[in-house]
Specification:
Elements (H helix, E strand, L loop, with lengths): L2 H12 L5 E7 L6 H11 L34 H12 L4 E11 L9 E10 L3 E2 L3 E14 L2 E15 L33 H8 L4 E5 L5 E2 L14 E5 L3 E10 L20 E8 L4 E7 L11 E10 L2 E8 L3
Parallel strand pairs: 12-14
Antiparallel strand pairs: 1-3, 2-6, 3-5, 4-5, 5-6, 7-8, 7-9, 10-11, 10-13, 11-12, 13-14
Length: 324
């Protein structure tokens, strides 16, 4: 498809923006204690806010109450099916869910009847990924509880034409995106209104941890409310940077030149360690381990925070291991 053809096709896709994806949807079950219990057990969440006579549902269950299950829903619009069929006709026959965003407007409680409407919010221009070439489709679902606005759920998929597989024995590494200096660029972090303050701190070489002002519980990653007492009020404390490796994995495949275990361009694309670091303040975060070879990382390894500039426009908090 030429550039002009791609632009014209994208205009056809954009004509679907604003059209309904689902109308007058109704949750198959009211918010109920059994589903809340199963969710909390699966997530290992023991917050008292989700049990007892004043229980609320975990906010991240927002989508669970709208799902159609194996039998599906009857409220899906023809516009959404037409959009997917149009992409199918252009060879974009594969689909993968990429990410979702949620906004919480009021707590859901057992007994609430959930209804929803969804709209096709946006269709991206043609994008090329490692999976293949296609378009990102974002839907926005407005969720109500007993008729009151309860939350907004945005869900994004990539509808794509699968990339050709290289011949066995002749596999070539894809060329990575590069920054202004010519060095490979890492993927950008997702920054939104809930974690903006964290990234503002990173720019000032501060690792900021949220702290509930009602019960003083620290939390990471950043969340809009306390998972211990449900208070929405919080401030921040700056981490000392001291920590230990609580758990880790070593990434071998797929190779990606923007990540390196030894901070040496000659080693770009080699294995590297990703660790769950337990900070002295009592919270855990995921980051890279630097300063020691990936095969020397161990549980209990002492680490110290540092800020690593990974390309022209991105600096990240990482942890330098103290080799024994």
């Amino acid at each position: 498809m030429t550039g002009g053809e791609s632009d014209r096709f994208h205009e056809r896709l954009r004509a679907f923006e604003g059209r309904p994806a689902a109308t007058a949807g109704r949750g198959k079950d009211a918010v109920n204690e059994a589903m809340i219990r199963h969710w909390c057990e699966a997530m290992g969440d023991t917050s008292p806010a989700y049990t007892g006579p004043d229980a609320i549902a975990p906010p991240t269950m927002l989508q669970a109450w709208t799902m159609g299950g194996l039998s599906g829903h009857t409220d899906r619009s023809s516009a959404y099916d037409e959009l997917l069929a149009l992409l199918d006709d252009q060879g974009c026959t594969s689909v993968v869910a990429t990410d979702c965003e949620q906004e919480y407007l009021r707590p859901l409680r057992p007994g609430d009847e959930v209804t929803f409407d969804a709209v096709i919010e946006s269709v991206s221009p043609r994008k090329t990924t490692k999976l293949g070439t296609g378009h990102f489709v974002t839907t926005r679902m407005n969720v109500r509880a007993n008729g009151e606005p309860a939350g907004i759920h945005r869900f994004r998929i990539l509808k794509y034409a699968p990339a050709a597989r290289p011949e066995r024995g002749r596999e070539a590494r894809p060329l990575p995106e590069r920054g202004h200096s010519g060095a490979p660029s890492r993927p950008r972090p997702v920054i939104n209104r809930d974690n903006q303050g964290f990234w503002d701190g990173v720019r000032e070489h501060k690792l900021l941890i949220q702290r509930c002002t009602a019960c003083a519980t620290p939390r990471f990653p950043w969340l809009p409310g306390c998972n211990a007492c449900s208070s929405p009020d919080w401030d921040t404390v700056e981490a000392s940077g001291a920590g230990t490796v609580f758990s880790y994995v070593v990434m071998h495949h797929p190779p990606f030149p923007a990540f390196t275990a030894h901070e040496d361009p000659a080693e770009a694309g080699g294995p590297y360690a990703v660790a769950l670091v337990e900070l002295a303040e009592g919270v855990r975060m995921i980051s890279n381990i630097t300063g020691v070879p990936y095969d020397k990382v161990r549980i209990g390894l002492p680490v110290q925070l540092e800020f690593l500039r990974v390309d022209d426009s991105l600096e990240l908090p990482v942890f330098r291991g103290e080799a024994g």
